[in-house]
Amino acid sequence: MRRLTLACAALVLTASAAQAQPTLTSSPLLVNPGGSTTLTVTGTAGHSFAVIGSSTWSGFSYAGVDLAVGPDVTILGVGVLNGSGTGSITFSPPFPARDRHHVQAVTSADNFGTITATNRSTLINVQEARL
User: Are strands 116-125 and 86-91 parallel, antiparallel or unpaired?
Assistant: First the structure.
């Protein structure tokens, strides 16, 4: 019985840790100049989210968290994750001025006093893509 209790506790703790890490997906990653992509954030329902972008992928931090965007960071959209824990924005990258644009999202339970960062995603100008 003790082993069953420990196994159940480990399962619950693992599931909570996995749910705590938000993710960002981009569809599509290859974008035509003038085109757009949908950026979807997945995390804990009810948490605030912000999607940010930059022409570089390092050099900026917020609330003590190093982010995967540069000092030219812009806020692309903000919102609250719905009951399913998702939120999305539609974004048109600044192509053809640049060949790629780096995006990342952050989530927060306390109005961005503290944040949890997602993975970084790089949007690529389809006309400049070298496959």
Answer: unpaired
Token pair of 9 as six digits: 């506790």
In angstroms, rounded to a whole number, what is the distance separating the alpha carbons of residues 71 and 73?
Answer: 5
Counting the structural domains of the chain, the total is 1
Indicate if the pLDDT at residue 131 is higher than 80: no
Report the distance separating Cα 44 and Cα 105, nearest Å. 13
Which residues, in sequence order, are CB contacts of 104 under 8 Å at separation 6+? 24, 51, 52, 53, 67, 68, 69, 117, 118, 119, 120, 121
- Return the half-sphere exposure (C-beta side, CA atoms, 13 A cut-off) of residue 109: 7
Question: What domain range is 51 assigned to?
Answer: 22-125
CA dihedral over 117, 120, 125, 128, signed as positive or negative: positive
3-state SS assignment for residue 127: coil
**What CATH number is associated with residue 107?**
2.60.40.10
pTM of the model: 0.82
